[in-house]
Specification:
With 129 residues, the chain is an all-alpha fold. Helices cover 81% and strands 0% of the residues. The protein has one domain: Four Helix Bundle (Hemerythrin (Met), subunit A) (Up-down Bundle), CATH 1.20.120. α1 runs antiparallel to α2.
Length: 129
């Protein structure tokens, strides 16, 4: 799932590792506090990544960067709604379900949105050659 910008590709690898850690905490039946911590790590990372990605897209002259920033905001709003739905519950399976929804939304973003700028950056590299 390389997008052609090493910093973004590195972030995506970190995100996959965070997802794997979250998944493993479920498989290993860790405490709900551990699951919540792993989920919070994912949410914090998504926030930081969005800021970095938008700056890099702007720096590289990606023409659809404003639209991508809007998509990031919509994603963050969706994730916030998911988390609000479980914030005051201590029911384990609801937290696990929320985490799986967060994971699904971010992967959908990677596949449907981040992949849109791959061709732009490939064309930019070809122009430099």
């Amino acid at each position: 799932m390389s997008v052609g910008i090493s910093e973004i590709d590195d972030d995506h690898k970190i995100f996959i590792n965070l997802l794997n850690r979250f998944n493993q905490s479920i498989v290993d039946r860790m405490s709900i506090s551990e699951i919540k911590n792993n989920l919070q790590d994912i949410l914090s990372f998504i926030e930081q990544h969005s800021i970095r990605e938008e700056a890099l897209l702007k720096q590289h002259g990606y023409p659809d960067e404003p639209d991508h920033a809007l998509v990031h905001q919509l994603l963050k709003d969706t994730l916030h709604q998911i988390m609000q739905s479980v914030r005051h519950t201590s029911v384990d399976y609801l937290w696990i379900d929320a985490g799986l929804k967060v994971k699904q939304e971010k992967i959908k973003h990677l596949v449907n949105e981040d992949m849109k700028y791959i061709n732009y950056f490939k064309n930019q590299k070809n122009k430099l050659v």
